[in-house]
């Protein structure tokens, strides 16, 4: 994985060549990623889904994060990121099913790495029960849902914690239902404006 080639860019999103994933993170090169948020309408409201990162991940282990995310390889367009949805949570959808939210520029320093990303951000709505999701076990160890309104309150600082419910999955594939209170510290870090902007955009889009 560390030898995979990624396109690299200037901070103004001007292409400047390719580099291995390892080199990209060691040198802090700007590169492209695909983010896809998953939402569900239920009788009591709209929910946003989060994956739980595997505890063996190098960065933000065991934290909740965007439902689906991954790197774009050298030469790939954002549409290629659709593969991450099936790989990580087992849902087969088309790129045309996605709703674009925008391009976000993130710079994150963690665990001795400098991660500079141009994030192509989307969302899609599913009617599948989260129990039907098939997880990539070396990447994802669970899925939880949080009411969209509550997620907005959490990431705008209006509340300190919110209710999350879903399931966790063990290495052997066994699952158990979970219900817990989560705060911002339980999530992988993104720039402060990321979640409020994304969630407000989703809320507005679903209201039309």
Q: Can you walk through the features of this model?
A:
It is a single chain. 17% of the residues lie in helices and 43% in strands. It is of the alpha+beta class. Strands 3, 4, 5, 6, 7, 8, 9, 10 and 11 form a nine-stranded mixed β-sheet that branches. It has a two-stranded antiparallel ribbon with strand order 1-2. Helix 3 packs antiparallel against helix 4. A hairpin with a 2-residue loop joins strand 3 (30-42) and strand 4. The protein has helices at residues 21-27, 83-89, 148-155, 194-207; strands spanning 5-9, 15-20, 30-42, 45-53, 64-66, 68-71, 99-110, 113-125, 140-147, 162-169, 175-182. The chain has a single domain, classed as Nucleoside Triphosphate Pyrophosphohydrolase (Alpha-Beta Complex). The model has no long low-confidence stretch (mean pLDDT 95).
Please give a quick description of this structure:
The chain is α+β, with helices and mostly antiparallel strands.
How much of the polypeptide forms β-strand, as a percent range? 35-45%
Number of domains: 1
Shape: globular
Could you estimate the helical fraction of the residues in percent?
Answer: 10-25%
Low-pLDDT regions: none
- Total number of β-strand segments? 11
Total DSSP helices: 4
Overall mean confidence score, pLDDT: 95
Query: Which CATH top level class fits?
Result: Alpha Beta
CATH architecture: Alpha-Beta Complex
Terminal CA distance: 41 Å
How would you spell out the order of helices and strands?
Answer: EEHEEEEHEEEHEEH
Q: What structural class do you assign from the helix and strand content?
A: alpha+beta
Q: How would you classify the quaternary structure?
A: single chain
Supply Rg: 17 Å
Query: In this structure, how is the largest beta sheet organized?
Result: 9 strands, mixed
CATH superfamily: Nucleoside Triphosphate Pyrophosphohydrolase
The CATH topology, please? Nucleoside Triphosphate Pyrophosphohydrolase
Organism: Heyndrickxia acidicola
Domain Nudix hydrolase: 29-169
Pfam family, one: NUDIX
Protein name: NUDIX domain-containing protein
């Amino acid at each position: 994985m560390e030898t995979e080639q990624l396109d690299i860019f200037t901070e103004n999103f001007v292409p400047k060549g390719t580099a291995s994933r390892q080199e990209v993170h060691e040198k802090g090169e700007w590169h492209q990623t695909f983010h896809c948020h998953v939402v569900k309408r239920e009788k009591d409201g709209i929910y946003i889904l989060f994956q739980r990162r595997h505890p063996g991940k190098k960065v933000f282990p065991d934290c909740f994060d965007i439902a689906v995310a991954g790197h774009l390889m050298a030469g790939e367009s954002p549409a290629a990121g659709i593969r991450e949805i099936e790989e990580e949570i087992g849902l087969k959808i088309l790129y045309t099913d996605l709703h674009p939210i925008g391009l976000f520029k993130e710079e994150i320093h963690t665990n001795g790495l400098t991660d500079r990303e141009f994030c192509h951000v989307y969302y899609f709505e599913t009617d599948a029960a989260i129990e039907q999701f098939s997880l990539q076990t070396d990447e994802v160890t669970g899925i939880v849902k949080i009411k969209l309104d509550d997620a907005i309150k959490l990431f705008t600082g209006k509340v300190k914690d919110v209710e999350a419910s879903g399931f966790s999955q063990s290495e052997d594939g066994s699952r158990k239902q979970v219900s817990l209170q989560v705060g911002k510290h339980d999530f992988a870090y993104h720039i402060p404006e990321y979640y409020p902007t994304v969630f407000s955009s989703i809320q507005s889009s679903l209201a039309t």
